[in-house]
Specification:
- The protein has about 250 residues and is of the alpha+beta class.
- It has two domains: about 120 residues, no CATH class; about 120 residues, no CATH class.
- The protein has nine helices and twelve strands.
- A hairpin with an 8-residue loop joins strand 5 and strand 6.
- The longest helix is centred in the middle third of the chain and has 14 residues.
- It is globular.
- The two termini are about 15 Å apart.
């Protein structure tokens, strides 16, 4: 199933009762109905506001990550209300491509509402790329297996890759050169209450997305973005794949 994700990352934890109530109000405002909740798959527990708030606030065995399924949909929401490291708390709406297309205006409005009122450190909307995006074995290897990202105690605050629509807070933008970032050939740039929105392509599934994404990385550089480097160990695996009868069907 192809999915579109709306991702929101916060510098501080969001594990209070007030946060939980605000999230439930957000769902009500945008008519997002939940059916089931749970800490692990398969998610079987029936949704109720009381159960949801308990999971949000108390977690389970020192874990504050849980999932909610949308009513009569394949879509779901991942929550991580207490992350441990700066930037690791947040929530993701993972929507089927079909559902996103049916209600695209609604989901973009929800995205902007969260950015303007919750003020995340960073947020994004983008197509979740899987192996079907890549047209051949070499492209699959070049865009997945070869690469890893820098990791330190602040790695969750930075951006792995430029997405279709990106919200970057002023605090995040201070780690880059704002004039350089704005000078890139974005599809659109809009100011926000505590940051700015950068749209990479007109459509989330634009055929030129991958090329544009790499061009944006080259232009922006590190700072806002995590440094992406070749993983030498995985290079060896890639060399083995090249010399074998590997095909996309094996992935």
């Amino acid at each position: 199933m192809e999915t579109i994700s709306l991702r929101f990352c916060f510098k501080e934890d969001i594990g209070t009762r007030s946060d939980a109530m605000n999230f439930l109000e957000l769902l009500n405002q945008f008519e997002v109905q939940l059916s089931r909740v749970g800490f692990y798959e398969p998610v079987k527990q029936a949704f109720s506001k009381e159960v949801f708030q308990e999971m949000w606030i108390d977690g389970f065995e020192d874990s504050y990550s849980f999932m909610s399924r949308l009513e009569k949909r394949k879509s779901y929401i991942n929550m991580n209300t207490r992350g441990g490291l700066p930037g690791s708390a947040g929530f993701d709406f993972v929507l089927s491509k079909q559902q996103f297309l049916l209600e695209q205006t609604k989901w973009i409005d929800l995205f902007r509402f969260v950015c303007e009122t919750w003020k995340p450190y960073r947020a994004s909307i983008g197509l979740d790329l899987d192996r079907d995006v890549f047209v051949d074995t070499q492209e699959l290897l070049d865009n997945t297996i070869f690469w890893t990202y820098e990791r330190d105690e602040f790695c969750f605050l930075k951006v792995r890759e430029v997405s279709w629509i990106n919200y970057w807070s002023h605090a995040l933008l201070e780690h880059g050169n704002i004039e350089t970032i704005e000078a890139f050939d974005w599809e659109a740039v809009d100011p926000g209450a505590d940051g700015a929105y950068f749209q990479l392509t007109e459509a989330f599934d634009d055929p030129s997305f991958m090329i544009r994404r790499e061009a944006a990385r080259t232009h922006i550089g590190v700072g806002v973005l995590l440094r992406k480097v070749i993983d030498e160990d995985l290079m060896k695996e890639a060399e083995w794949l090249r010399s074998s009868d590997f095909s996309l069907d094996d992935v």
